[in-house]
């Protein structure tokens, strides 16, 4: 990726022997746009970031894992600002162009000494080839790094996008314990980048759920440094970039759900035939969040009763006698009637797959919405019961 | 209990060798009131019950476990009506005075032959002393029967209330996979019984959660046969009855949560100091439903970050810097500040108890609400992954 450098090291913030400090650096100040958590209990770096993003430029992003710097009061804000200063000094750039981001345990004070020593070491590691190190450094309970790359062409000019994310618990719409960083070399105005990012977020990160909790630290940040010759100048070029960006966000979102804490299956629920978009959203969201549905999927049980019952309590307008329900292409319920033991047998086989699409057709209208979610396993409980110990 | 008889037998509806058919019978037609699930996917007996309760009288209730008679279409309705007829014939009473109720697996057709043979056998077992049999017959994944008795006095006249409930999964506000039957010998008008029942429900069954799913079959039914001399005639006598009824409902609700699928701990979350009643409700509901909070409690971890984060995403007006958080009487956060390792140590000891009260004071106003909930264990997942297999 032209003009971007990455680094990731172990600074000693995490107890475990894992990388915990990462940096993205752009050779020149990049156009920047960001979306943050809507939780009212919000981490210090998010409070700071919301202010700093207003200038629309960013040259360096520092990310630590192992400590969320959340619920840390005035001290947390001061620490986040101190981190910014350390970065600005180490890179010899303006602190106006530095953003910081944190993820990990809530309520613990940042170990500032680790940043004092870690940041200069991190700067020494900056390289175009160290994307993997950065991707590793931002992980918490994730079991694998999450990187998506995409290229596109505007006229005969190429552009690239790279997206790096973390997140596997506390995932639900309106952002999650999710950090996602998008770097692109396209030439784009800050307001266009912002609009594209919001649109991409709506159908990707805002349509996934692991456990229904929203984090205090969620951040989706996009940097565009204009190092490529491709340029967003009109509706057409914007559309090309939008498609590429949405694809990167959707793939990252999918990777997050797939790596959901304890997840064994990736499921897409599609609700179609709804009278209103809101109904489609409500029904698909209720199904994706239902613990009874999620545990049934873990048990490889095509428990259509729980799925339709979740739609029934969602607040969406539904009529049981109109419902069709499919697992992949296999119908199990048609017009409210269970299709019998043979159909259930075929469905049960489909449930053994790692990726399953469930389609609920309400047969009441034309609107559709969908969610990506994962099953709910014994390991999810174990991971979250033991997280702090 | 004067004038009420009970029975519970094994009719062969469940695969397991357990009681699965129960009956409550009143010597005379009793004044009746009922509340039903708000789920739009609703079981046949509920559809029928909603109509029949309108006449305000009931003499016999038939309850089966093992089959919910839900998502069974027109056939389900016909079967529920057929059950009513069998009961009316066996008891030689009007079918207008017969209610039926079902709980168990969704989507399976009722085995009518078991009812043909079971109901007459059940009638033969009716006795004032068979409450335990009835209470056993209505259980599904419950691990224990749930019976609460209460007496009261109006003037010098005594009255009694007995409540019998089932439910341990699919429990959330707006009713749950919960069946609760209240019998009382008080003399009361149908409209007063209905009003008292609604009020009692609001602070009991509508403030509990096990897993956040609402069932298709929830029913809360009260019968008052007037066999005692105590009579609700004015505001004062109504208040006495209301208090006793609310107590019965609250104790039953508590038993349901305590017996929550896989539950190891019973927790009451109290949110106080909210600006509005709605804020108090939203914050307490979000905490009680948070899987991250529930798994932390299972892990005996006083994870205040997750509790405050759940309040933060609830939509309630909260200010982190104002929050106080207590586990029983032990403060862990005061005015947004963590109270240190010593306080956390004390809190961790409290987390080892089977019953815990968590109080979140928002310090923004005067309103309060509370929820009863249970922790989320490895066994919950196991129970619900394997339910149909």
Textual characterization of the structure:
The structure is a homodimer of 389-residue chains. By secondary structure, the first copy, chain A, is α+β, with helices and mostly antiparallel strands. The first copy, chain A, folds into two domains: 4-258, L-amino peptidase D-ALA esterase/amidase, CATH 3.60.70.12; 266-385, ArgJ beta chain, C-terminal domain (Ubiquitin-like (UB roll)), CATH 3.10.20.340. Chain A is 35% helix and 28% strand. The first copy, chain A, contains eleven helices and 15 strands. Chain A has helices at residues 44-52, 73-91, 112-124, 131-137, 190-203, 235-258, 277-289, 291-298, 304-313, 341-350, 378-385; strands at 4-9, 21-36, 57-67, 98-105, 146-154, 157-166, 179-184, 208-209, 219-224, 266-274, 324-327, 330-334, 337-338, 355-361, 367-374. In chain A, the strands form two sheets. In chain A, strands 1, 2, 3, 4, 5, 6, 7 and 9 form an eight-stranded mixed β-sheet that branches. Chain A has a seven-stranded mixed β-sheet with strand order 8-15-10-14-11-12-13. In chain A, a hairpin with a 2-residue loop joins strand 11 (324-327) and strand 12. In chain A, helix 1 packs across helix 2, helix 5 packs across helix 6 and helix 7 (277-289) crosses helix 9. The radius of gyration of chain A is 22 Å and the shape is globular. The two termini of chain A are 40 Å apart. Mean pLDDT of chain A is 91; it is low at 172-176.
